[in-house]
Design goal:
heterodimer; A: alpha/beta; Rossmann fold; five-stranded parallel beta sheet; two-stranded antiparallel sheet; B: alpha/beta; seven-stranded mixed beta sheet; five-stranded mixed beta sheet; 13 helices
Chain lengths: 361, 322
């Protein structure tokens, strides 16, 4: 008689990494050229500059509530740089600024969106992305269907969707991994485990030892990566993209990182964050780690750093200035793009609103 | 009617290879009501797909399929199960065009049977149309005849707006009328005068149209001439068509299967009193289900308004004065 076998009976996995905390590469070959690392680092620095600028403007009442990427720059940029913007799609949540910018979404639009101007939602016709998603996890089924549809039509585009440890508790996460596994959809589920869903710790989201191992239940491959290690994230995502492009189906990537900032500008993390834990993660700062790596390669110096910082600041300032000078929309903005063929009743309302607001011709 | 729906799906799939049908049991079985019978054999498993049993991802992935360039038709097995997809329909389907400022359009049709009268198990039969008419960005149609079922479905599939296409559970096999073989469309947003009359305007949609017509027939024997309007489309709403009839009759009854409070009838009352106040000769009445949950099948005939009730209430309305 065989013994009954209770799952799981395998060893927990550990995050894959390439860099030490101080930025030294392991013995293998780097998955990224030096130029690619510098380009990625620039996106990470650009994100810091943007986050600082937007936070300061928010404090002055010139910017809306938004979520900074702080602490997760390597996670987002490492994933984004594995994509080909000409054919791959990003289905974002809302904490992926550098991924969207690299894919072609204008910084100005990103800023306008968080300033509350509907024009910010405009996605240029050559940029392969869906709008940012505020309803947690609702984007995951859409990413799955998009990937499945691309595959059905014989394309080789791949879809990546971003979400967090909190969103993985939603039914949409479960339903999507299940469907993606069945359809072998070329989709990458990029789960950023940043430790927190606002104030709710990761332990309250699942009793599973890792998010990556949840993939097993769907017949999907899961992998866990050090999310503060640019090279490791890039390498793992590149592999998942190549597999999806070749018809190998979906991957769940758990990027283990830490939100060293607030959930958003309305949040006060001092009410719940463990200061020691925060300091531990600040020691693994993803930006410093990449700089240290480049120093170890002998290609990083203060001049280069200043040059990059200046160019990032100039780029952000120009975009913010342009966003600030964009007039707030007229009442048309409530009605345009709701329908392809609007009902007469809504058109009547549009006319009434225009008259009331003095927007009428 | 079910044949008309099936024929339309087949013709549209034939004409446009971007059309795919997804849903629960739509493949080999052909749907629990056979609306997709034979389509998988004709068009293959890629275009007629049996989905895992999860309404949220059926609708949510349908959005993604549309984004990829396809024109999905989703079958929700019963509208009663629509709640499990409601976040995708209400927040996502209806708003994608707006949220992307017109970059993405959503040529997607969600077909779903709704309403009662066929002794289904619990939680299958609610008339939940008002949830969806309260969702800007989503069009809602509810044909009552086989002719309209085919033509409205074709129009819905042609539209670049998302359309919720509601099918009368009770009318699937009961409703039989002439349907041309060729493709045609019935425009969204135009009502049909199901029966002309002079004394009272009786407004209904979907399965209730049949009840209204039978009541009108009985009322004509009492000397009351009832004009039956089949709305066909709840959003867009044919306000001009309604006003034209009310201007003629001055008396209005609205018939629906849904509970009274918050039902679409309330929207019609408000609209009619606004548009036709001076034509009205009596208060507008609503004939609906009570404000209670849809019951088990054994007592559903007590719940859904029937011909006798409509006859009695409309006869009283015909005599009432303001």
């Amino acid at each position: 008689m065989s013994e009954s076998r209770f799952l799981p009976n395998f060893e927990p996995i550990a995050p894959f990494s390439r860099l030490t905390d101080s930025g030294i590469l392991d013995s293998g070959e780097s998955p990224m050229s030096d130029d690619a690392v510098i380009e990625a680092l620039r996106y990470m620095m650009l994100t810091r500059v943007f986050d600082d600028k937007a936070t300061s403007m928010q404090r002055q009442g010139r910017f809306g509530t938004f979520s900074s990427v702080r602490g997760q720059e390597a996670s987002v940029v490492g994933a984004a740089t594995a994509l080909d913007p000409t054919k791959d799609w990003i289905v974002p949540q809302y904490r992926e600024f550098p991924a969207l910018i690299r894919h072609g979404y204008p910084i100005e639009n990103f800023a306008l969106y968080f300033m509350g101007n509907p024009k910010g939602g405009t996605i240029p016709s050559n940029v392969n992305m869906l709008p940012m998603q505020i309803s947690l996890a609702a984007q995951i089924p859409q990413a799955t269907g998009l990937a499945w549809g691309l595959k059905m039509q014989g394309g080789d585009g791949v879809v990546i969707t971003f979400f967090g440890d909190g969103a993985s508790s939603e039914g949409d996460f479960h339903e999507s991994l299940n469907l993606a596994g069945i359809m072998k959809a070329p989709v990458i589920f990029f789960l950023q485990n940043n430790g927190w869903a606002i104030s709710t710790p990761r332990e309250n989201q699942t009793a599973a030892r890792s998010f990556a191992e949840r993939a097993i239940g769907y017949g999907v491959e899961g992998v866990m990566v050090d999310g503060n290690d640019l090279l490791a994230v890039h390498e793992v995502t590149t592999q998942a993209v190549a597999k999806a492009r070749a018809g190998g189906g979906p991957t769940l990537i758990e990027s283990v990182t830490y939100r060293t900032g607030a959930h958003n500008t309305a949040d006060d993390p001092t009410r719940y964050i463990d200061q020691q834990e925060l300091e531990k993660w600040q020691q693994k700062d993803p930006v410093e780690r990449v700089k240290n790596y480049l120093r170890s390669r002998g290609i990083w110096n203060e001049n280069l750093e200043q040059e990059l910082l200046d160019s990032c600041a100039a780029q952000i300032d120009a975009a913010m200035e342009s966003a600030r000078n964009t007039p707030l929309a007229t009442s048309d903005a409530l009605f345009n793009h709701v329908y392809a063929e609007p009902p007469q009743r809504m058109l009547d309302q549009k006319r009434d609103w225009a008259i009331r607001n003095g927007d009428a011709q | 009617m079910i044949e008309a729906i099936r024929e339309c799906l087949g013709q549209e799939m034939e004409a446009d290879n971007r059309v795919v049908v997804i849903g629960e049991d739509v493949g080999v079985l052909g749907g629990v009501f056979r609306a997709t019978d034979g389509l998988q054999a004709r068009f293959g498993k890629d275009r007629v797909v049996d989905m895992p049993l999860a309404e949220g991802v059926i609708v949510g992935s349908g959005i993604g399929l549309a984004m990829s360039g396809l024109r999905p038709v989703i079958e929700l097995q019963f509208l009663g199960f629509g709640h499990q997809a409601f976040h995708q329909i209400g927040q996502q389907v209806a708003r994608l065009r707006y949220r992307s400022q017109g970059r993405h359009s959503l040529p997607l049709v969600i077909r779903s049977p709704f309403g009662g009268g066929v002794r289904t198990p619990e939680l299958h039969s609610d008339a939940f149309e008002a949830f969806y008419t309260h969702t800007p960005g989503l069009k809602v149609v509810a044909p009552a005849t086989a002719y309209d079922a085919k033509g409205l479905l074709a129009a819905a599939m042609e539209s670049d707006d998302p359309v919720l296409y509601l099918e009368p559970l009770k009318g699937y096999r009961l409703t039989k009328d002439e349907v041309p073989d060729e493709r045609y469309t019935v425009p969204l947003g135009k009502l049909r005068v199901a029966r002309a009359g002079a004394d009272v305007t009786l407004i209904a949609w979907s399965a209730a149209v049949n009840v209204a017509e039978r009541a009108a027939e009985e009322l004509s024997e009492q000397g009351i001439s009832v004009e039956v309007l089949d709305l066909r489309s709840l959003n867009p709403l044919d306000i001009d068509g309604v006003s034209e009839s009310v201007a003629k009759t001055g008396r209005v009854a609205i018939l629906h299967e849904a509970p009274l409070t918050g039902g679409f009838g309330g929207e019609l009352v408000a609209t009619i009193q606004q548009e036709c106040f001076y034509s009205l000769e009596a208060p507008i009445i609503r004939i609906s289900a009570p404000d209670t949950p849809y019951p088990l099948g054994g007592v559903e005939d007590l719940y859904i308004p029937d011909v006798d009730r409509v006859v009695a209430e409309v006869a009283a309305l015909a005599k009432a004065s303001a």
